[in-house]
Amino acid sequence: EVFLPEETRAAAPVDFLQELPSYQSALRRRAAAAGTQERRGAPLGSAGLRGAEARGLEQEGGEPPARPVREYPLSIAEKRRLRDCQQADRKYLSGWKQWKRASSKSLKKALNEVKELSSYLELWRHDIHSIEGKFGTGIQSYFSFLRFLVLLNFIIFILMFSFVTLPSVISKYGIFNSSFAKIPPKNIEPHCTVYKPSGNKGLVYFYTYLKDLLSGTGFLEVTSLFYGYYTIDAAWLSILRYNLPLAYLLATFAYLALSLLWIIKRSVEGFKQNLVHDEDQFQSYCNKVFAGWDFCITDPNAARLKHRSLQYELQTDLEEERLKRKIADRTMKEKLRIYSLRIFINIIVIAVLSGCFYSIYRATVFSQENSNDVNNMNFQANLLVQYLPSMVITLANFIAPQIFSFLIRFEDYSPAFEIRLTLMRCVFVRLANIGVLLFSLWSHISYCATDKCKACGYNYELYPCWESEVGQEMYKLMIFDFIIILSVTLFVDFPRKLLVTHCSCKPVQWCGLQEFGIPDNVLEIIYGQTICWIGTFFSPLLPAIATIKYFIIFYIKKISLIHTRKPAARPIRASSSNFFFLVVLLIGLILAFIPLGISIAYIPSSKACGPFRSFNTSWAVVPDTVLGFPTGLQQVLYGIASEAFAVPFFVIICLVMFYFIALAGAHKRVVEQLREQLAMVRCDLLLCSPKFS
Asked: What are the GO MF terms of this UniProt record (predicted)?
């Protein structure tokens, strides 16, 4: 028999927990509630005591209850008794407190009804719930993420349309007795202001309209879709003056800030869940065994898939533990061999990336030099030349991930790290390809070999309105990306489904259906969203096209998932996947900041088109607007922008950041102590059980 001394059983963790302020406060409120019940002479059995505790915990000082009675963990009889006690308490409250409690209850009820009604108006609510029931929360997270991008692009479109497009259209057509003003650029050479859009005139063939629709040239170039349309400097609505250049720049900053804040807000919850899941291997194992089942699944095939998924996750954990032991037992010779192999493979990866980047650069240069030579090419050749950079980028996005997936097998990483590293390489190649395209364009835009060109600050002969040219490239990338997604579904997935269903050949059955890979599909739409963020400054209505594109893609992917593809055999958790999606989306947004910042603050704006033709750069409209403010306000703004304000502000921000870091560290240590004490209590309970006696 094992006997524990009394000092051991009176565990220290209990004393520590009882010293917490929250526990002492709960004791005081419980005693106050019990005293009130005794004064009224009500019997207090076990149910009455728990009801008194609930009332004591829910109110203090006559405040309204924090939650309804139905939310307490009590039986029906206890809840009824608690409700009667609460109703009896109202007699002792003043009229003001009774009105306050009733109004608070009515407000909560109204808010709950509004929230419930708004849930029925949620986009694709039934479709996403159906997908969740058949295929689990992992695939459901992808479609929820797609819905988020649809809403984000729609709000960006509303923002740009309301503050940029609508005032321009209203003033140009004289609606609501409005007018506009065009201020000619000052101190600018006349040849810099020449811009003749390639609009269609006279008799035009149908295929010309088709080419213009696919490439953004011709009749689309002179519409409100592109930057060159917004050439007015001010719009007059009655007696109000609307500064369009300033509104254009502020709307750009607004949609970038809105996207950043919304992504951060959504990623906080995913970060917390991801932190909990990845914190402890033993806790992760317990979560898989006792809480790993997805109770939203109703389809038998999805249930079998979930069984295999849990089995795969447990096998992955065991494999990672085996690899950790193997890494610990490696000799110096083995370490030297594996590190040399990894260095060699990373050199190959860099070579593949360099090849992709150089191919995109050469394709862009060739396309820009020959796309304007319409007379010597037919319709198909001209369209091919204009879409050459988009096709090379799409080909690089397809080939490079296949090479990375093959090379990662030889680097001897753990399965989880293999997936993360491959995905990060794929993210880099997709997003960096856009950067190389823009760099290729800007190298041509900024190249000046003559004095006339240097007077303008950019290559005015090839790019009289270079912002519209960049907008057309972003437009072509988005259209071509949508064509590829649609073509893969129609001409690859459906024929493969028919072959697997109706052909019993062993090679066909061995290939099987294409898996619905969640990370690959997410990278696909994040690539398109990055294009939208960059292109919105050069094409203000591009978010509307992105909204329609993602709206159609939702149904394409839904049909593909249900009819032509199968869920991946190695799915990922919804919590970790949501966080990963948002992190990659945040990387794409940060990448979009760089080219937009260079375009706004560094590259000279076009002098022949756009709202900034009277300024050297797009950013120059800000100091020009500040000069029109009163002197006192100017001094305040200049003081905020000076080093005398920036340095102390930065120091204060650093101190606040260090404070929160220290606070987080203290909380982490307290949590670790509480875990250790809970483990001690568990050991004491095990030792005190009859099995050990």
From this structure: mechanosensitive monoatomic ion channel activity
First to last CA, the chain: 5
Instruction: Give the start-end residues of each E strand in 349-465.
Output: none
- Predicted TM-score (pTM) of the model is 0.76
β-sheet bridge partners, residue 180 = 235
Alpha-carbon distance 389 to 370, whole Å?
Answer: 12
Give the span between the Cα atoms of 526 and 434, in whole angstroms: 12
Q: DSSP E strands: which ranges in 238-327?
A: 240-242
- In this predicted structure, what is the pLDDT of residue 684? 66
109 half-sphere exposure, CB direction, 13 A CA radius: 7
Strands 178-181 and 240-242: unpaired
Of 488, 478, 487, 483, residue with least CA distance to 529: 478
Give me the phi and psi of 352, to 5 degrees please.
Answer: -65, -45
Tell me the pLDDT tens digit for each residue of 495-531: 888 887 777 777 777 777 777 777 778 888 888 899 9
3-state secondary structure of 62: coil
DSSP 218: G
Strand order in the sheet with 240-242: 178-181, 234-237, 240-242
CB of 159 closer than 8 Å to CB of 258: yes
Q: How far is CA 6 from CA 9, 18, 209, 512, in A?
A: 5, 18, 91, 66
3-state secondary structure of 234: strand
Integer Cα distance of 458 and 445 in angstroms: 6
> What's the one-letter identity of residue 343?
I
Place of tokens 């970060």: 271
Confirm if 524 and 486 have CB atoms less than 8 A apart. no
Q: What distance separates the 2 farthest-apart alpha carbons in the chain?
A: 105
For the four alpha carbons of 270, 275, 278 and 283, in that order, the dihedral sign comes to negative
What is the Cβ-side half-sphere exposure of residue 575, based on CA atoms within 13 angstroms? 14
Residues 46, 50: Cα–Cα separation, whole Å: 6
- Give the Cα separation of 406 and 349 in Å (integer): 11
Going from the C-alpha of 615 to that of each of 188, 244, 453, 503, 612, the distances in angstroms are 10, 13, 17, 66, 5
CA 301, chain centre distance (Å): 31
User: What gap in Å lies between CA 11 and CA 681, rounded to an integer?
Assistant: 7
Give the sign of the dihedral formed by CA 424, CA 429, CA 431, CA 435. Answer: positive
- For residue 135, CA distances in Å to 93, 146, 312, 323, 516 come to 53, 16, 17, 31, 11
User: Which residue is associated with the tokens 């920036």?
Assistant: 646
Which letter does DSSP use for residue 42 in this model?
Answer: -
Nearest to 421 by CA among 433, 405, 435, 434: 405
Instruction: Work out the burial of residue 516: count CB atoms within 10 Å of its CB; fewer than 13 is exposed, 13-18 middle, 19 or more buried.
Output: buried
β-pair type (234-237, 240-242): antiparallel
Q: Which helix (H) or strand (E) holds 516?
A: strand 514-516
Compute the distance between CA of residue 627 and CA of residue 629 in angstroms, rounded to an integer: 6
Looking at 421-500, which runs of residues are DSSP E strands? none
Residue 567 has a pLDDT of 67
Instruction: State which H helix or E strand residue 402 sits in.
Output: helix 388-407
Low-confidence ranges of the chain (pLDDT < 50): 1-23, 32-33, 35-66, 692-693
